[in-house]
Every structure is written in C-alpha cells, then in structure tokens.
Amino acid sequence: MNRENRHIPFARLHNVRDLGGLRAADGRSVRWGLLYRADSLGKLRADDGADEAERADWARFRALGPRAVVDLRYDWEIDAKGRVPELPGLAYHHLSIEHRPYDQAALGPDVDPGPYLAERYLEVAHDGVKEIRGALDVIAASAADEAPVIFHCASGKDRTGLIAALVLALLDVPHDVITDDFTLTDQAAPRLLADWHTAHPEATEIWPGYGRAPAEVMTLFLAALAERYGSVRGYADELLGTDGEFVAGLRGALLEEGRG
Predict the structure, then answer these.
(1) CB-hemisphere CA count at 13 Å for 104?
(2) Which of 82, 96, 151, 191 could pair with 42 as two cysteines, CB 3.0-4.6 Å apart?
(3) Mean pLDDT (whole number) for 57-68
(4) Residues 201-218, buried b or exposed e (16+ Cβ, 10 A)?
(5) 35, 18 in Cβ contact below 8 A?
(6) pTM for the complete prediction?
C-alpha cells in the first residue's frame, strides 16, 4: 500500500484504502489494518473460473484479514453485480443506507457536484438512520475485537464516504482531514469511469461530475450537519442514538498513540 495516496492496489477493485494513520485532534491516530473503505467487493471472484488477476485480487483481499464486510448497496445492486464471496470467518452485513435512488450518470452538465451531492448525503443521513447506526455498531464491535472490517458501496465514494466521514468525525478527526480522505477517490475516478463505459457501451454522454470527489461535497455536508445539530457528534447522538460510552469505546478501539 502507498501510504501517500492510501490506496491499496487491486486489478478489479479501484478504490480500496486503509483509514489507518489519520490523526485525531488529541494527537492519536487511527490504527492501521482495522478500518477499510472500498468500492464494490462484488467484483471479487473466488470461483474456479477466476482469471489470474482475479485470483491475485482474492489473495490480496484475504491478506487484509477481514472479519466483517458492511455492504451499503441496494438489494437490486447486489442482485445485478454480486456480493463479496463467502469466506470462513467473514461476517457479511447488508445495510442499505440510501433510500432514494438517483442516477448520477444521467445528470446534466449544469449540475454542480458540490451542492447536489451534499444534499443527497443529507438525505441519506436522515433516511438511513437505522442502517447507519447498524453500520457503526458493526464497525465498533469489530474494532473492539481487533478484527478488520471493510465497508463499501458501488464506487466507494458516496455512501462509503458518508460512513467514513461519520466514523472519523466520532473519532474527532478534523474535518479537513476527513475531506482530504474523501477527495482521494479522484485518484480512482478514471478507472471507475472506464468501468462504467464498459458496462454501458451504448452510452455517449455522462455527467461530467461522475466518479469525482470534489472537496466541496464533504465540506458542505459536514457544515450542514454542524449547523443543524451543533456538530457531527450532535447528529449522531440525536438521530443515531450514540452516547459517550459508545464514542469512548470506538475511540479506544480505533485510535492509538504515535503512529501516523
């Protein structure tokens, strides 16, 4: 893994990264090797028909030592694209946090990604309260057991980015650091876009913002939560039902002294 750009290289996956090393306000850092974000793990293959690159991807995935996967996609996405292959000792949690689907690729060129996507994130933050809390519970329990967990959606940007932002904010990672992590998806955007074109060879036009992760999306989203609830922690306590004990446990399990 390149700790400068944080991405873990795979052949079929494009947006996998370890959230380790991100520094919280108290000087501690997120532990490496426990908390991963990704694009769709349905791209992984563990069957006899897998090609060399797919076999290498599966070996690399297993080497991360995951003990839990949180799949944030809709049922119909899983039906169409598949889920992570079964693996002994790997718990699979399907928690679809988005309740109002929208077609990003079909948006017009006049749609500004920052305000538009920030509004969609706010919708998810309010519509998906039950599933978001479920995802946080899985992450907290896995971290307490020192068991690596991977959460993902389709491209690893929007729904995945929202969960990453909430977890990091509860760890008291500064908003600018959270935003910097969010924007790293731009490094994966060309490959995500190429996958889309492969899946839609008949399409001639696509939203210019597709696959991109401009900082404004996350800054507007975090600012909106702070304006409505005083802070991200205020949102989590009021809507998700978190409390001091939960947050202290999360920080104790995921933060460590020193290493950045």
Answers:
(1) 18
(2) 82
(3) 98
(4) eeeeebbebbbbbbebbb
(5) yes
(6) 0.96
